[in-house]
Amino acid sequence: MLLVRRDFVAQYKQTILGPAWHLIQPIFTTLVFTLVFGHIAKISTEGVPPFLFYMAGTTVWAYFSNVLATTANTFIGNAGIFGKVYFPRIVMPVATLFSRMISFATQTALFLVLVAWYWLAEGAITPNIAVLLAPVLILMMAVFSLALGIIVSALTIRYRDLAVVVGFGVQLYMYMSPIVYPISALPEKWQPLAMLNPVAPILEGLRYAFLGSGQLNFMALGVSALTILVALLIGIFLFNRVERTFMDTV
């Protein structure tokens, strides 16, 4: 709890708008995506209002990318604390997972307000019973970001180049995932391959639940869950192995 509080306070210390950035960032990002991909590139949003379509993707992706990027810097960024006192090091990335959940909850609340408006006032979308699966899908996304983050953090001890790669690697991964486009926009022969990306069926499932677009593919979600579990086990193994000696190499 102390680490979660520290991360949250440090993130917005000496800022003018403070936690308001939780809302400003997704709104402006979504506006840019709507202009560029919706109006200029004219990428299909499967009949969903473009702003709402892109808000769904950017809200989830912001949480995923923030947890991954911050967790990937666990050993380097906290070497001072690790060198003074012992505690289970895995607590640090888990604390990041929860501290970033605060901003995610705020952005999700904004998204749900928009969903309610477009559903009740506009009738432009059709949420369904699959929303009950949303917590499971979000948990999968959170665990995947944690798994990738701790894998990178363990490898960064020996290969510092990875710290540089993570930044643009996350951006590249965003375009490999259906954030600014639906899976249906891809050629049909490439769609099964695209769904092997663990993030793809999660995003498609969330859009299906809240917006009535996308697809809820349980087989693809099962493959994603297995991939995420394997990644988490590998991450924990590497993390525990590195934490014993990392002070000699940091």
Q: What key attributes describe this structure?
A:
250 residues, mainly alpha, 11 helices
Would you kindly provide a written description of the structure presented here, covering whatever features stand out?
The chain is mainly alpha-helical and 250 residues long. The protein has one domain. 70% of the residues lie in helices and 0% in strands. It has 11 helices and no strands. Helix 7 packs antiparallel against helix 8 and helix 7 runs parallel beside helix 11.
SSE class: mainly alpha
How many beta-strand segments? Answer: 0
Termini Cα gap: 26 Å
What is the averaged pLDDT score? 85
Helical residue percent band: over 70%
Largest β sheet strand count, sense and barrel closure = none
Q: Provide the gyration radius in Å.
A: 19 Å
Q: Domain count, please report it.
A: 1
What is shown here, in short?
70% of the residues lie in helices and 0% in strands. With 250 residues, it is mainly α.
